[in-house]
Specification:
Number of helices: 9
Distance between the termini: 9 Å
Order of helices and strands: EEEHEHEEEHHEEHEEHEHEHEH
Strand content: 25-35%
Radius of gyration: 18 Å
Mean pLDDT: 97
Structural class: alpha/beta
């Protein structure tokens, strides 16, 4: 039976230059491989060692990139190794099969959201009124499923985020602060539901996961074994659960460690 490895991407396996956390002397910094270019500029990286590990993992397991990114944003990424048969985008809103969104899954997600939480239009209207233009750079909607703000983090009032989280909670939505982005995501829109579906289709009897943010908590909980890095919302909250390992590594070296842990379990399952 195949092993399914479903991993978050940003700040888990791949890192922007601002998130690399290269604290060692320059001469000892790891060699980096750029895996994403946006508007002709390099954007995301992993270490060359991690690139080799990811290639090995893609050969040995069913590797499923699992991201809150939209399909367009995901398709900018050029990961090393075999092209994944499955990918999960928009926080579980889309399951890509050979690069194409599965229409039945998409329809089921849309029906669930209509039944179980406040509409996106209500959330967007609240963000437009309550978010201060002094610290908001952009208002964005992702795949007509959820909303997010791009903010000036140093100007962002922490109390505003807490108040937004309470307001959203009462309407069936979750708020997550990741770097310069504040996400408002419907609670029924989960990575875990999509991972369960992909595991069923792949016939996997063992699921491994990794993630760093509040939106990854359900992804970690669906795993037989999971890992979180030493940075991110989950680390800041000291979040833990059975079968989840909290790693000490931070930044791009955490991505390398996570891939080592995946491979160790996959090889042991052979």
């Amino acid at each position: 039976m195949p092993v399914l490895v479903a991993s978050d991407l940003d700040r888990t396996l791949i890192y922007s230059s601002a998130a690399l956390a290269l604290t060692m002397p320059d001469a000892r910094a790891p060699r980096l491989l750029c895996v994403e270019v946006h508007e002709s500029r390099p954007l995301s990286y992993l270490t060359e060692t991690a690139a080799g590990l990811l290639t090995e993992l893609g050969d040995a397991a069913v590797f499923v990139p699992t991201t809150t990114r939209t399909r367009k944003q995901y398709q900018r990424i050029n990961l090393p190794g075999p092209v994944p048969e499955y990918a999960i985008c928009a926080n579980g809103g889309h399951i890509l099969v050979d690069g194409v969104s599965d229409p039945d899954w998409q329809a089921a997600v849309e029906a669930r959201l209509a039944d179980e939480c406040a509409p996106l239009a209500e959330i967007r209207a609240h963000l437009e009124v309550s978010a201060d233009p002094v610290w908001v750079r952009k208002h964005r909607v992702a795949e007509d499923l959820f909303a997010y703000l791009v903010v000036e983090r140093e100007l962002l009032p922490e109390e505003w985020v807490k108040e937004l989280a309470v307001w959203a909670e009462n309407r069936g939505w979750t708020v997550s602060l990741q770097g310069r982005k504040i996400y408002a995501v419907p609670k029924p829109l989960t990575k875990s539901a999509a991972v369960r579906e992909v595991a069923r289709r792949a016939g996997a009897d063992l699921t491994l996961t990794a993630g760093d943010s509040l939106l990854d908590a359900d992804l970690l909980l669906v795993a037989d074994q999971g890992w979180r890095p030493g940075h991110g919302e989950l680390a800041e909250a000291e979040w833990s659960a059975p079968m989840i390992t909290a790693l000490p590594e931070r930044g791009v070296l955490a991505g390398e460690r996570i891939l080592r842990e995946f491979l160790k379990v996959v090889r042991g399952a052979d």
